[in-house]
Amino acid sequence: MLLFPGFVNSFHVVATPRGALRVAPVTMADVLVIQNKGGGHGEIGFHLAQHLVSRGDAVTILHEGDGPNPKEAHRAYGELPSDVKVIWGGDLSEAAACLAKLEGASFSAVVDNWSKSPEAIAPYATAAKAWGVSNYAYVSSAGMYTPDKGDYGAVGEECAVKSSGQRQAEEKIAEMGLPFSYFRPPQYIYGPAQGKSYLAFFFDRITRGRPVPVPNGGDQLVTMTHAADNAAMIAAAVGNEAAVGEAFNCATPSLVTYDDLVRLCAGAAGKECEIAHYDPAGFDKPDGFKYKFPFRDTPFYVSADKASRLLGFSPAHSIADDISWYYSEQYVAKGGLDKELDFAEDDVVLGRVPA
């Protein structure tokens, strides 16, 4: 069997009676997605189901929580095809009860977008091993990386990691002998059903004629990845032998600086912008100080070269292309222009008033 990573389908190459070759589709996967209810990963399950169903896979989502709630990532499930089965599992840490809700079904692949510790992942991994899955794709986090101090280049999968709960979960499924793949998204994910908006900070100030505080020189590089691209990379691993035993940085390769993000936001809003750089350690923070820049003070971004090479991954989105949509649908349509805001702490950061 030949596998074509990243394509919509996989195929068998079959000899015909005349010796010619023809291509025949293989049986698609039956995928269980174990999905969390929020956080940066909260939207990935929705897009993942769309990707998998579009290529012919059967999808069951075992979802954290007791049922749809007002969060957008959950409301979006109503847009999925009717043949995607969504099972609301309640507390997924009660694994025996949650697995019982599958009513004896078995699966050929599992995508775990919920577990954050070895204790949490173990019962689901045990079930997956009993099913004989071809892939156990685990969505962990790029936050485990510990690059050398002062090293602000692209972080590769070979970078040293700290022993976080998610790293220990990675180690657990490897110890259990599962055909694992690890997917490590960085923090900054966006999409139509996103939870936190990382760009509201910029739009709030630009649309009100305020300077936009940016730490240090503003030339720090960052990735902002659309959740559909995170999902596309993970989907490319399902049924793909090349993904087994590998860790992948789950992010777009498209980079942008903080200053350029501000300018993109200003362009989308049709406004001029004033960027005001500041030293994050150069001012005293008064009691109760709540100001928070939406990104790290220093650069942090990962390399997606490995996913491109082994999985054929190529993003369909970039924040530069999506910025007008983001402004209109994720800021204006959600009442961003109508918010009452107090920028007094900005003045402290920028040294315009005493702390």
From TrEMBL:
Q: What is this protein called?
A: NAD(P)-binding domain-containing protein
Q: For this UniProt entry, what's an example GO CC term? A: cytosol
Query: Which residues are in the NAD(P)-binding domain?
Result: 39-195
Q: What's a GO biological-process term for it?
A: monosaccharide metabolic process
Q: Which InterPro entries match?
A: NAD(P)-bd_dom (IPR016040), NAD(P)-bd_dom_sf (IPR036291)
Q: What is the lineage of its organism?
A: Eukaryota, Haptista, Haptophyta, Prymnesiophyceae, Isochrysidales
Pfam families in alphabetical order: NAD_binding_10
* GO molecular function terms noted in the UniProt entry: UDP-glucose 4-epimerase activity
